[in-house]
TrEMBL record:
It holds the Pfam family DUF1330. Residues 3-97 form the DUF1330 domain. It comes from the Bacteria. The lineage of its organism: Bacteria, Pseudomonadati, Pseudomonadota, Betaproteobacteria, Burkholderiales. This is DUF1330 domain-containing protein. InterPro entries: Dimeric_a/b-barrel (IPR011008), DUF1330 (IPR010753). SUPFAM superfamilies: Dimeric alpha+beta barrel (SSF54909).
Amino acid sequence: MAKAYWISAYRSISNPEALAAYAKLAGPALTAAGGKFLARNEAAAVKEAGVKQRTVLLEFESVEAALAAYNSPGYQEAIRALGTGSVERDIRIVEGV
């Protein structure tokens, strides 16, 4: 079974305090679900309509594990802490090769 990669690309952050509250809950929830953080920072370089904002990359054992992490009670609590309108982001779960 191929590994899976969770990519969160932030387009804008309008409420840094809500993002901090989310991160405090999301990090432990995702690692408890088997996620391994590979990158978590502002983009070092952007190309082709990229946005120089926060990007997060996690590795999971499978797509199913990544989806289970997203749907877990702990991560859903983190999403509630983030609230609506605090960030604009794109989350993708991609199967490895």
